Amino acid sequence: MRKAVLYLLSIALLSMVACNETVVPKTVRKEKPVLFPDYVGVTVPATIAPLNFKVQGEYQAIDALLEGKNNQIIHVQDKDFVHIDPVKWARLLNESKGDSLRITVSVKQADGWVQFAPFAVHVSDVPIDYGLVYRLIAPGYEVYSKMGIYQRDMSSFTQTPILENTLIPGSCINCHSFRLANPDDMSLHIRGQKGGTILKTSGTVKLLNTKTKQTISNFVYPFWHPSGKYMAYSVNNTHQVFHEAKGERVEVGDAASDVIVYDIAKNEAIGSPVLMQDSVFETLPTFSPDGRSLYFCAAKAKKMPVEYKEVKYNLCRVLFDPETGTIGNTIDTLFNATAIGKSVAFPRPSPDGKYIMFTLIDYGNFSIWHKEADLYLLDVRTGECRPVSEANSDQTESYHSWSSNSRWFVFSSRRIDGLYTRPFIAFLDENGKAGKPFLLPQADPDYYERLLFSFNVPEFVSAPVDLNTSTIERLMATPGENVGFRK
Amino acid sequence: MKIFSIDKMMAAVFGLMVFAFFAFLYPFHLNYQEQYQLFLFSADYVSSYFVKPGGLSDYLGNFLTQFYFYSWVGALLIAVLLTLLQVMVWQVSRKLGAKPVFLPFTFVPSVLFWSLLCDENYLLGGVIAMLILGVFILLCIQFRTGWERMVFLLISLPVLYWLIGGAFVLLALFVIGYELIFRQLKTGQLLTLGVAALLLVVVLPLLAKRIIQQYPLSRLCIGVNYYRFPVNVPVAIGIIGLLIASLPYLLRWLSAKLRSGKAVFLIVFQLAVVAGGGLMLIRNSADMAKEEVMAYDFNVRMRKWDRVIAMAEKKKPSTPLSVTCLNLALAKMDLLGERMFAYYQNGVGGLIPDFVRDYTIPMIAGEVYYHLGFVNTAQRLAFEAMEALPDYQKSARSVMRLAETNIINGDYAVATKYLHLLQQTFYYREWATKALQTINDEKLIDQHPEWGWLRKCRTREDFLFSEKEKDMMLGILFRQNPENRMAFEYLMAYCLLSKDLQHFVEYFPLGKSLNYKAIPKSYQEALIYVWGLTHPDPIQTIPYAIGNGVKNRVRQYQRIYTGQMNAEPALRDQFADTYWYYLHFRN
């Protein structure tokens, strides 16, 4: 009996060994492999999940040798794609912090193995936040189906729902926002027959009715004040129109918009004449890291949708006094996009206050439908502004968010197929130069091709978000708290 | 074992009736259902069903629904499933002591389901759930002792909850009922086990809610997607389920009460009730007006233009969407200008319906936009129709259209994504594979009879879609490709249907580029009418090539119209196929 067991074990072992064929390359190519996702030369944090990948094109088998510091080696051979053991990967990255991995890939073709030139993956010793929160939604037009806000642990492939609209059938869930990547301070909107703004602050969750007599709509685009006492929101009268020509699909624009500051403790929207001008479209507000400036996008009001191409937003600033909740009276223009015939969207200051990253488009502010949309970086000290060419592509780059240490940024891009938005992460060095961005890794590289959802509004979080769905259900059965207004 | 027993014969006859109904009277409802799902043979797709109770029933229901692509296969499947349901109810009833005389009553649940399935929004997963329940009931009554049965029940309940959702409660009710009747357990034992079973019935959905937090408890109590609109509570299904679980007991009780000599009367009575009631129920449930629209739409989807026109010849369409399909078919056969008023026209809404946030109208309107060359709008409406599906399914028809429109627009990466999805289906795999081969060769796309043509037709100059200015959009489309006869005829039809004769006359000369051999009949009728408004003797002076037939008819029409106080009935008899009649009498 014992012999039989040993015999069976040795057969099993032999067959396992036989699975890993020794690679004797018949052809050695000088060029690097074309991977999906493209991880060649990217910079990753040491806590990122395994970068599973495949080589573009047909092959019978794939082999990868991953060499790190201190003789750490992972050898993977598989049929479809390189599937890296997570434990070995974590060890390899940990050992190789501040250095690079050398990865040699071979593929088995009908006439033998083809080996590509090795490539590097740089492992940064600068940490990244725990995870990402994003909305998954089909890139549609007016009608929406299933959607949800999800969190993803970046050190593994685990994605869990925070809130899905299956819980509140027929609703649209959007605009999730966190204070400095803190999962305890969160805001999101639920639109539909039952709706409102969910505001989670240090353990309490509220449902707010944010439409006031003095504001043109419910609260829309959010941004937290660093103190956690205020939030800035835009209020927008938004419309969609649809293009007929090839290459263009949707245009989203505001017929009117203003910016307000919401005082959380007093449950009041603070309005200011400088941020609620009829002749100006003000939108997409953000606070500076010191909390004393309110950045926003402002454009001269135009007749919509007739003059939609004439709407060009500048990056502006107004002072804000967090002690009194007072908004200043003078508007400064930080980046005059109109002067170069362009328009600014989604200004996002880095938490260290050095930069403001924004999206630059030809007109309007809804950059996700603009192929020309690119990321730009404004140096706050020098006022210099440059395209983040290291991260941009010839397709849309739109929403972006900073890690809490200001050294990583995540952004949504349509570079893969031109329609479905995917989250890319890039490193920013001390001199403000970005590394080559990498696509958020998935267990199966084909995941993105099968997925009929876009990744919308990717935001870093420093720890898992805990939002009790029973609380949400209970709140949705109540009328919610009405927000007041003061000037 | 008898091969030709009465029960088998009746089941077979029932099955044949169900098949005949769905195959010959109601086939397009099945085609309609098939298009509103995208059943994939992939691990991700399977696993997406099993995250909530009732997932297996939904999965199997959708698995079978994909075969509705050929309606006769769908009819066969429904017939088999409903017959199986009856057979199961009969088997359970027999085991419980029902006499053969009560066989006809066992058709009631199946007949009720038949009537429900006449509603295109009732999904096959519901039938599957009831069949799975039936299997568990049959298994339960195989056990000899009450203990075995109760243990089986307690083990089965969690499994069954996951398989069929809230309908699992019916198994508990059935088994407790069984033990109450047959008393194989002592009262204390029955009470203990019964309470345990009922506790499970209550606890399992609550436990599921703890694990699956993204659904309301009510959804986890129901589980299966019996109805396309998940917010609806499927009361009718609940009644059928209760009937499945209780009918065997009722028949047992009736059998015990049965007096000799009443058998023939009972059989006749039951047959009359089941057949007569069933007939009434199905007549009431079957919506033949919808079936007509679905038939038109299916033929449009399959590009069977001649069949659409043949349908209209047989019975003139009267619903706005049927008219839309007919007008599209007429245009595709170059007959719109010639024959559109030979059929009922309900205004511009019947030409290109306005957008509505549902999954039917955008699909049909999208066909019109697609064949006209409004590629982006066709793409948008395909997407909108798919996203409007309340049960969160994707649509095979929409995904095909998304692939096509992206190919036409040259967006090959995203088209490839859709085609790879379609390659994971049963019926669309071959089409997708061929399309993928086409993508690799720009020339092949240009030579494609449909895609190549639409590439030439689509607009190069960008403009924003405007629901209220369809004539303007048609004008731009035609101006960019003066060979696009369909765009011209839709533009003309739009003017005629909206009774905008000023623009009709203004746009009419644009059709020169199309080299008509003769002016289409409805245009002749409109031209002579307009000319007559400003000229005393239009027939003699009109500069357009108007045929003698039209000239003669306009004289007759004018005579009746001006000569009678209430001319409409007389004109309807003779001139309902003219533009003049539409102009004067159709709102």
Question: Would you give an account of this structure?
Answer:
Chain A has 2 domains: 27-124, Immunoglobulin-like; 131-482, Neuraminidase, CATH 2.120.10. In chain A, the strands form 8 sheets. In chain A, strands 1, 3, 5, 6, 7, 8 and 9 form a 7-stranded mixed β-sheet that branches. In chain A, strands 13-14-15-16-35 form a 5-stranded mixed β-sheet, covered by helices on one side. Chain A has helices spanning 2-19, 86-95, 447-450, 469-476; strands at residues 25-28, 35-36, 43-45, 54-55, 61-67, 73-78, 100-109, 112-115, 119-124, 131-137, 148-153, 159-164, 172-179, 182-191, 196-201, 204-209, 219-224, 230-242, 250-263, 268-270, 280-287, 293-300, 314-321, 326-327, 332-335, 343-349, 355-361, 374-379, 385-387, 397-402, 408-413, 422-427, 438-439, 454-461, 481-482, 484-486. Chain A is globular. Residues 1-18 of chain A have low confidence and may be disordered. With 487 residues, chain A is mainly beta. With 587 residues, chain B is mostly helical. Chain B folds into 3 domains: 6-284, no CATH class; 289-457, Serine Threonine Protein Phosphatase 5, Tetratricopeptide repeat (Alpha Horseshoe); 517-587, no CATH class. Chain B is built from 32 helices and no strands. Chain B has helices spanning 6-25, 27-35, 43-49, 55-65, 71-96, 108-117, 125-140, 146-164, 169-182, 187-211, 217-222, 235-257, 263-285, 288-301, 305-314, 320-332, 336-339, 361-372, 375-387, 396-408, 412-422, 429-439, 442-447, 451-457, 470-480, 485-497, 501-507, 521-534, 538-541, 548-563, 568-575, 579-585. In chain B, helix 7 (125-140) runs parallel beside helix 9 (169-182) and helix 9 runs antiparallel to helix 10. Chain B is elongated and about 105 Å long. In chain B, 47% of the residues are buried. The A-B interface holds A 138, 140-146, 148, 161, 163-164, 166-170, 241-249, 251, 305, 416-420, 449-450, 452, 469-470, 473 and B 42, 44, 213-216, 219, 230-231, 357, 374-377, 379-380, 383-384, 386-389, 392, 394, 409-411, 413-414, 416-417, 420-421, 458-465, 473, 476.
